[in-house]
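Appendix B, Record 12. Input sequence as logged:
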Amino acid sequence: MLGVIDLPTYLAGLVLIVLLPGPNSLYVLSVAARRGVRAGYTAAAGVWCGDTVLMTLSAAGVASLLQANAVLFGIVKYAGAGYLTWLAVGMLRAARGMWRTRRERVVESGEAVEAAGERPYRRALVISLFNPKAILFFVAFFVQFVDPGYAYPALSFVVLGAFAQLASFLYLTALIFSGTRLASAFRRRKRLSAGATTAAGALFLGFAVKLTLASA
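Logged structural output:
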């Protein structure tokens, strides 16, 4: 179909890959839990736009350039790790404040986040774009399901990308509505909110370290 081979295997692999936790999905869940469905979809839109850019770059051969140029790969890698670290520090600082004021209402901390001018779309987009391993992944995974003899390989990438975005939409939608349910629990239990924020910050630090140690 349009140069795509072994579609069932691709879809099965795609589901498993999408379900793996990553900084994008974790951030969307965090935003939905703190600010509701609308903000969650705003963050998800940043993820989808970022993934679309990465898929386009992959199809254009940028992944091969990153693999061949260690300096360029290093620049993108460390920039992405630095941004994830910055986000992690912000989360841990917020968690520290929550632990200090456990007896106060969680709603107040949510309002503080609003006042800080958080922009979910932009943050999610940057998290997506500053991930060179994602570009390499799209090529390494997609190319296995493109018929080398097909006259229009770009069209094959579009089909594969469309399925990937659909899977991402369904998964992030589930996370967003799960996040809104978590929000009610966070409002009732300040310790739970502080603990979840601490865990999210620690995970983002882990993502940053993992990206730093990655090789092309």
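The two ends are 31 Å apart (CA to CA).
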